[in-house]
Amino acid sequence: MEELHKALKDRDLTVSTVHGKGRSLVTARDFYPGDVIINQEPYVCVSTHKRCDGCFRTTNLSKCSRCHVVWYCGTSCQKSEWRLHRLECEALSRLDDRKRKSVTPSIRLMLKLYLRRKLQDEKIIPSTAMDNYKLVEALVAHMSDITEEQLVLYAQMANLVHLILQWPEINIKEIAEIFSKFACNAHTICDSELRPLGTGLYPVVSIINHSCLPNSVLVFEGRIASVRALQQLPKGTEVLISYIETAGSTVTRQKALKEQYLFTCVCPLCSKVGQYDDVRKNAILEGYRCKNETCDGFLLRTTDGQAFQCQECGLIRDKEEIKKIATEIKLLSEEASKPSSSANFQEAISIYKMIEKLQTKLYHPFSINLMQTRETILKSLMKLEHWREALAYCKLTIPIYQRVYPAVHPLLGLQYYTCGKLEWYLEDTEEAVISLTKAVDILRITHGTNTPFVKELLTMLEEARAELTYKSSSKEE
After folding, report:
1. Contact 46/52 with Cβ under 8 angstroms?
2. Using CA atoms, how far apart are residues 366 and 419, in angstroms rounded to an integer?
3. Strands 307-310 and 299-301
4. From CA 295, how far away is CA 220, in angstroms rounded?
5. In this structure, which of 33, 83, 246, 448 has its CB flanked by the most CB atoms within 10 Å?
């Protein structure tokens, strides 16, 4: 690990051991909002959909004619991946059609891991201080913490990998342990708008610990993982990112972290559990609304457990009434989740609007559940090109985004971006300039100013400003 320490020192970073956390990445100089703290190519990665294995694009795809599993967008990506895929292709081609269909992205990630290690051991592809198998070996597996059911699943997956590779020197237990490492350390690769594209293993980025109040953000530029500072990080500050969606109650966040990453978070936000502010916030995010629609108070269960009482005005809400509305929402949600074709897509939107109407009666106006329903309706309306109505729903979500996310958060920036695009398209130019400016203020920090996405956003803002200036001068004339 001495080589890694030297490589990180050249990047003004150090690795320290923090009690209760293990290895941590720490700054060796001051970093400022938007600064790239570290970036890394994946040791291995796979797409989780029908995408090019080299660049994750979805256009001009051709399937590998031999293994019939991997896709490429052209000869350039195929050549860049050939040394690794040649071995993978040979292994996959030995399988019959039934077994080949059972090769999931996780199985492929494991295959590529072993094949990449083999190629590096044989000096066919180079290894560096930040790109070698020893970094994978150093990752935590949490084998003693996983359930028996999960162990059985890893063993089954390991058997399939062993069958595909047919290497006598590797053992099932080792493969199963690495699958456990994937679960705790692999990252979902997303595009600039945070839509998932694939999965990658970034061993150095995996040193960075979690906080529900992170000081940094992980975004992706193609396959490269890039960690940027969200605020000023003085020398000696531990770099922290969020592993999960943080817009939820403390209980919800803790549950997600325990199930996926097998640890209990003790960040400043989680340490407030049980305190009044935390109880209030959680009741607003995931609890019920006051029966008085003009009151924005939050409800807590009464001491006898038979009702909920508003902590603002004291009104009681019957438990059975809440249960009745919740049951109606559940039934409608099951109906809405059924696969739908474009022909009855509008019907699905109608169902979600009924859910929204019930949720406004049941949940607090700043409820996460209500926000998610409106987000679903928004995306559906955009698919149907119902732009004006989509804009109305986008504006409904903004206040909740502002409440549940910090002032500098990529999801808030992207919501302003969506709002601005819709406003500009609908010729609400003045509003578009305001929304796009807010988007730029956030996304230039989280995504950087040199990425194609932000460059396109800046161009859009310049054009919107020019259009607004023209409209204003035309009115004066």
Report:
1. no
2. 19
3. antiparallel
4. 42
5. 246
Determine, yes or no, domain membership for 254. Answer: no
Overall domain count for the chain: 2
The gap between the terminal CA atoms of the chain, to the nearest Å, is 70
In a domain, 442, yes or no: yes
- Nearest alpha carbon to residue 426 among 457, 465, 385: 385
Residue 372 lies in a domain: no
CA dihedral of residues 284, 265, 402, 362 (deg, nearest 10): -20
C-alpha span between 307 and 319 (Å, rounded): 5
H-helix segments, 204-302: 250-261, 276-286
Q: Label residue 283 left, alpha or beta by phi (over 0 means left) and psi (-120 to 50 means alpha).
A: alpha
Structure-token pair, residue 276: 């009044």
Residue with tokens 């409800």: 299
Residue 179: Cβ within 10 Å count: 24
> Could you tell me whether strands 240-241 and 209-210 are parallel, antiparallel, or unpaired per DSSP bridges?
parallel
Can you give the pTM of this predicted structure? 0.92
pLDDT in tens, the chain (477 residues): 789 999 999 999 999 988 778 899 999 999 999 999 999 999 999 998 889 999 999 999 999 989 989 999 999 999 999 999 999 999 999 998 888 888 999 999 999 999 999 999 999 999 999 999 999 999 998 888 889 999 999 999 999 999 999 998 888 899 999 999 999 999 999 999 999 999 999 999 999 999 999 999 999 999 999 999 999 999 999 999 999 999 999 999 999 999 999 999 999 999 998 899 999 999 999 999 999 989 989 999 999 989 999 999 999 999 999 999 999 999 999 988 876 555 577 888 999 999 999 999 999 999 999 999 999 999 999 999 999 999 999 999 999 999 999 999 999 999 999 999 999 999 999 999 999 999 999 999 999 999 999 999 999 999 999 999 988 887 766
Give the Cα separation of 397 and 366 in Å (integer). Answer: 9
What one-character-per-residue DSSP string does 418-457 give? HHHHHHHHTT-HHHHHHHHHHHHHHHHHHT-SSSHHHHHH
Q: What domain range includes position 52?
A: 42-187
Using alpha carbons only, give the angle 105, 207, 24 rounded to the nearest 5 degrees: 160
Q: Which residue, 187, 221, 245, sits at the end of a domain?
A: 187
From residue 65, alpha-carbon distances to 52, 82, 92 in Å are: 14, 13, 12
Please calculate the CA angle 198-202-206 and round it to the nearest 5 degrees: 115
Domain of 425: which CATH number? Answer: 1.25.40.10
Tokens representing residue 327 in the block: 């049951």
Residue 127 resides in a domain: yes
Q: What is the DSSP letter of 221?
A: E
